[in-house]
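Check out a protein:
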Amino acid sequence: MRLGIDLVALDELDRLLGRGWFVRYVFAAEELAHAETLGDSRRREYLAGRFAAKEAVLKVLGAGLFEGVTPRDIALLRHPDGSPNVTLRGSAAQAARSASITHVTVSVTHKRDLVAVVAAGW
């Protein structure tokens, strides 16, 4: 089993969300589509959670943010019961195969202006 953890302050992400290239590089189409249905405050919190989850999953995969795995290839979607579901595609799926990881799960928590994520892969 491999673990990854990440912590993001909402204001850290604000300047990056204003950059179109960053948004297109980091977030999966489904994540962006859902974010558009949310109010400004909730959208900010939602995207920060997704970004922290991607960072934690990258650690599980043994990669950094600009080290061969495109973050949008890691999609944090929802199971019908509301729990997070990690979907690995493209470069992320390849990195998981290379690391002999067949399953990845995350736990996301929000408190005030902080988002913390723990990811586990096995």
Residues 40-61 form the longest helix (22 residues).
